[in-house]
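Researcher: I'd like a candidate sequence for this fold, 162 residues long. If you have to choose between options at a position, lean toward the conservative one.
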């Protein structure tokens, strides 16, 4: 897979709008969602639908999630067939509102597999997601940010939290 291929898990209300922006920006998407109807919208636009988060993480170096609750994020990241089982992923970007407790626990477990976790919640609502005007609050090193900045800028303005 090329550098312009990004994994995206959770193409529902908010995630779907973010995934749409990536397609419009020219990225190839490899996706997973438990809602097959939501996923089919992206398959029709050229995204590749895979069978699990692990399959997505075995195809792409950068995997983004946008999921409804912290427990779902944890399950997708660390559960059976989760991102942690991926063979290729290097950076996991969680754009959900997960909170520090979950984010730290997920980051520790992913780090054991040499996967860098980036907490990147957004503010600006559905309209901001559609327009690409979200505030993206990113917690990672400058080195990691330089690698993922082009992807995150598709969504809006980046605020490095540290």
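Model: Candidate sequence:
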């Amino acid at each position: 897979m090329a550098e312009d291929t990004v994994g995206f898990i959770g193409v529902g209300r908010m995630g779907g709008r973010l995934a749409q922006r990536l397609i419009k920006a020219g990225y190839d998407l490899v996706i997973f969602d438990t809602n097959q109807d939501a996923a089919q919208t992206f398959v029709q636009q050229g995204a590749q639908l895979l069978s699990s988060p692990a399959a997505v993480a075995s195809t792409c170096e950068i995997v983004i999630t946008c999921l409804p609750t912290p427990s779902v994020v944890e399950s997708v990241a660390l559960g059976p067939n989760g991102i942690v089982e991926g063979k290729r992923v290097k950076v996991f970007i969680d754009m959900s509102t997960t909170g520090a407790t979950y984010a730290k626990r997920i980051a520790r477990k992913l780090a054991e597999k040499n996967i860098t976790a980036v907490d990147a919640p957004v503010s600006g609502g559905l309209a901001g997601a559609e327009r690409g005007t979200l505030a993206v609050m990113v917690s990672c090193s400058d080195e990691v940010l330089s690698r993922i900045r082009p992807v995150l800028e598709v969504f809006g303005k980046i605020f490095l939290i540290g």
